[in-house]
């Protein structure tokens, strides 16, 4: 949202507050939304609604975040607060009971409607490429929605059951929760998944679950029948790359005279290619495997997904990301400053510390113990 619009929203909220209006205007995507403490919707089945308590809720106005839209939103905010103050607020004037309006719509129809809305918004308003939008829809939404009973009624209970069917503390459950929240929001259904998505991250991968270097070397050599994929595996192990980053390297600058690898960030900003430099740990793999001579296979589709599929097909026995985690732990073992390791991995020092802190602490304590017991 442009800064001038953001400032105007802030100023308008201040005007509303000064007038004693306890309604705020917020921006969600490219739309303006009202937020206020309101009575529960008559058709809501949430825990708060069942208790009859007022709580902070959103009102979608269908107004865009423009000066004209903001002026209209201010009028609506004053109108809303006037109704609340005069005890004349009625949800039927502001929202439609989805159980009445859409009671005959099947889950399959809801998904089809949401797909049309999602793709149109992503292409028309976010300027995303249609091919990438289609790929994201299939990976992050459609693959999850297919688990819903297509001919049934879309309810919070049905969506929650699908989310809870995924293994906790995994990325798949977090992705399912995100997809269901988006669908519920589109359908006007109260879906509360608080505390049910688990905690995804390295904290749920024990050090013993990571492959040791001997195992990594054995697997690397077992791929000798497929040099392009062997190179991808070697690069991920040696440089701690994310699964899809082997296709984002500047191979023109990756030569025998220098072990430095330049990797383009998957999250580019303002259309610019942002590179980070990474060094091999251990350097001997870069030398022994002559990684500067290889290149990845040509693939069509989401490369990170295809890497995961290749690992499963070849029976590797661990997830591709575990090579990256092992690289991070290896740098600790080899004495690399965690700040430098974080920069080479392409994330902040805070994330690096939060992710690998307990391994850092374990290594520090072990080092202190060894020094204390020398001699």
Task: Write a concise synopsis of the structure shown.
By secondary structure, this protein is mainly alpha-helical. It contains 15 helices and 5 strands.
What does this 3D model show about the protein?
With 375 residues, this protein is mainly alpha-helical. 51% of the residues lie in helices and 8% in strands. It contains 15 helices and 5 strands. It has helices spanning 3-18, 47-51, 67-85, 98-101, 107-124, 130-145, 156-165, 171-187, 213-222, 227-239, 283-288, 303-313, 321-333, 338-345, 349-372, and strands at residues 24-28, 31-38, 55-64, 261-264, 275-278. The protein has a 3-stranded antiparallel beta sheet with strand order 1-2-3. Strands 4-5 form a two-stranded antiparallel ribbon. A hairpin with a 2-residue loop joins strand 1 and strand 2 (31-38). Helix 9 (213-222) packs antiparallel against helix 10. The longest helix is centred in the last third of the chain and has 24 residues, at 349-372. It is elongated, with a radius of gyration of 26 Å. The protein starts with a helix and ends with a helix.
